[in-house]
Amino acid sequence: MPEIIARRTPTVLRPALVGLAACLVLAAVCGAAAQRPASGGDGAHHGYLAARMAGDGRLEVIDERDAGRFFVPASVLKVVTVAAAIEHLGIGYRWRTRLTSTGAVAGAVLGGDLVIEPGGDPTWGRNRFPGGAAEPLAALAGQVRAHGITRIRGDLVVDASRFPGRPHPLDRTLGDLPYRHGTPSSPLAVDEATITVRVAPGPSIGAPARVEAPDGMTVINLTTTAGRDRHGAGTLDFLPVWGTDTLLLRGEYPLSEPPFVVPVSDPAPALRAARRLRAALDEAGVAVDGGVRVRRARAAAGDRATLLAELRSPPLDDLLDPILTNSHNWYADTLALTLGLEVAGSGRFDDGVEVIADFAADLPDDGALPPGDLSIRDGSGLSAANLVTPAAVVRVLAHAAGRPWGGRLLDALARPGGGTLAAWPRLPRLAAKTGTLRHTVALAGVLDPDSETPVFFCYFVNHHRRPAAARRGIAAALRSWRAGERVGAP
What we know:
By secondary structure, the chain is an alpha/beta fold. The chain contains 10 helices and 23 strands. Helix 1 runs antiparallel to helix 8 and helix 6 crosses helix 7. The radius of gyration is 25 Å and the shape is globular.
């Protein structure tokens, strides 16, 4: 097809001792770090830190290389994001969505607008509800109907004013934004803010490709069906027109290639979710006379709103495995948006990212790490502009291990042969988070997590031309550290 620009047993970690020793890691890092060049014999840049928790609870540095230098972390950043979210919000945090109105109710008729007050709930989809988004939508609609309301004279309005600003980092490109792995965060969405599009070659050379999109979508089809000579060489771009129901496709589709289905970013996720709620209201016996719209400016102060329905999501705990085992970008970026609302108080994605960075930077380090050990742009690690030091990640892991929720976070990390570690070479016993971007391979976690003397580690490789070779090198380092040995030059 054409190229597309594309609960385990609780861990035993002796947390009370880990917290006392975390600063010793950092002091050792500072003393051992680095005037060595960042590049290895393979031309790539390597940075790592491994520290074993000894029997007395002290952390002993096994090995380090450029542990205070900046590297692109890729999805290893999700460890920091999840730890910050649990620290600030609590592992039992639940997103809240409310339906309110200032309109008067006369009999069964609501005389004003029904307002959706979103809370950034990312769970309305098949991954969290067996019946998909229809379940939470029906629950909200049923509560409205339980008030005796059967008709709404006004509009169904999404109040997006609590979440101003850009819902993604400025450097996220059209190579990422249109697709599931790069979908922007949203205060209200169904199915993880994606829509499914089916594409097939047209009936003849020169004809547009056949495109099937969800009902209500306008597709601007600028594609061309190419000949068999272009087999394996055709390209397609999907370009959502943000804030509208429009999707633009361009490029070519060889006649000889089969159809395919691709999840594409929803260009208007809040609007689509509201329309689904309107349908759920209708099914519950509540008719909406007006339209469906999104309000971005704050409403003028007026009558006190009446709460007509409220829905709380499954707990944050339920998202840990998808984020850390399977590296779900959208869930991780939603945590940044949520921190922007609940901690920064602005509802801005950028401010939520700053909360994550501040959490990691403010952990006790005895002044050992160089300043600016994190400079990040998102919560998922998708941005190549993210910069993190290996020492910062190890500090977060050690801190998490000393917290009551630390065992759960570490349990949610991938194990050898599972999640994003499925494609890695032979690994020792560990729990870890992978990171992969173009020319970046990374891994961070804990070796022998069920042991009384686990090893906390972080290994970054940047500018490597052969990811498989980089993974083999990291796996070899892990085996050395498990044996208490240092790593030779890459």
